[in-house]
Amino acid sequence: MIVDKEITKTFLFCLEDQVLDYKRNHPTRIDACLQILRSVFEESLTDNLNHGGVLCARSKELESVLQMRGGEKLLTLAGWRPVVVNFERSYERSPRSCNAKTLRELHRLVSKALDTVDGKKKSEETARQRKILMEQQRKERVLADFERDKSERRERM
Questions:
Q1: Which domain holds residue 103?
Q2: Does the pTM exceed 0.85?
């Protein structure tokens, strides 16, 4: 088995263009989506090695993936297909739908994207903390100026 380059290329394009779009998606939502994708891929890879049966996931479990623009396409590229089970939309994946090496490569891409999102979240948190600190310092300066002005007025009287 070899890695399907076309699936990998399309997956990467969809991941970068739609899911990792910070203008439309908040980093927390992106992180949740990628975490679930990674765990689903890991579970799928483990089950592929163990028994190779059909894997199912309920839409509720995949909710954060499906809410993202392009999330369903990522699942489809990884071999998951929508089905109805007990009047509920689910996704199933047959081991023959996407070979293990390709799925391993998609898992690597998702993990790499998660590292990028973690860095982005940390830098945003640092920027937010810096902004809070600057605002606090500004308030302290205004309060000190107010107190100084107040004491100068008392001295003049």
A1: 5-123
A2: no
